[in-house]
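Q: Give me the 3D complex with pyridoxal-5'-phosphate.
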Amino acid sequence: MEIEVQPIEKSKIDSIDFENLAFGRVMSDYMFECDYKDGAWQKPVIKPYGSISLEPSARVLHYGQAVFEGMKAYKDDNGDLFLFRPKDNWERINKSSVRLAMPEFPEEYFMEGLKQLVNLEKDWVKPGFGNALYLRPVVFATEAALSASPASEYKFMIICSPVKSYFSGEVRVVIANKYSRSASGGVGYAKAAGNYAAQFYPQKLAHEKGYQQVVFTDAATHKYVEEGGAMNVFFRIGDKILTAPTSERILDGITRKSLIQLMKDNGYDVQVREIEVEEIKEASRKGELKEIFTSGTAAVISPILGFEHQDEKFELPKIEDPFASKLKKMLLDIQYNKVEDKYGWRVKIS
Ligand SMILES: Cc1ncc(COP(=O)(O)O)c(C=O)c1O
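A: Here is the predicted complex, encoded as structure tokens.
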């Protein structure tokens, strides 16, 4: 499938300081766009990155019909380009779309769109651990109409942003006991735009108290740890690593499931089960809680240094050789084509 490319006049790449990139601020030269109307996805196009026009009555602005994905293109030391488990992102965006009564996007359009776009932008992908081209597929309701019902017109886009190794600084988290990001029967498992809007306020309150993130608990009882606002979470007690099972309330993170597989295959004692907040607090009091780390495409793995729950503060010990670093290296080695990929996760695109 050959996608029409509308050429740019001049690349902006020479004006970009690749050493000092704030996450998601700089966009590359091109974007992929495909409209849905008359019951079908129309011919996709790759065109210069730029503004789009929407009517103020576009349904997305009123009813939030929008879902997205987050993925990366990696370059190895030979200049070859790779995606990581892109089919999983395609499946997940469609799962998200179905939940928001939006049309599914064809696999061929998704894969070819990514491949041809990233190939055009190959100079924007720098080699070296941490460097990548962050890819943001997004679908939203464009139809101009104010009745509260699903739209009949949508736009699917992929935009690209070069990123450096994501270092979020020292991260301490609040374990939520009032606010929730999702509830049973809701949209927690979908990457729906509204899920992020809904957690900005609790996150703002956490910031005001000096914490960087919120780890959400189950909406019904607030007794069980679920996930962060944009990342899954792991706890290491002794040599045991715990993470909550995915559910209709938790996003099925691609990093999370890759890490679980790597842990299983490398002899780690990983347990996917419900985790009581009390268990974590008790382990911390006894000095058995060794590590907390989050997982997600943007930062891969980030260590958490401490947490607060109901105004009680906990600090994690400083440890040599954390599991989080070993696991991160294992995953990066696969993503950057440093080791054999026995899982078939890496997809070469040029
Ligand atoms: C709510 C939520 N949980 C988990 C993740 C991690 O998912 P992945 O590893 O697929 O990036 C993300 C980020 O994409 C997220 O938004």
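A quick observation: The pocket of pyridoxal-5'-phosphate is lined by residues 70, 191, 227, 230-232, 251, 253-256, 295-297 (CB under 6 Å).
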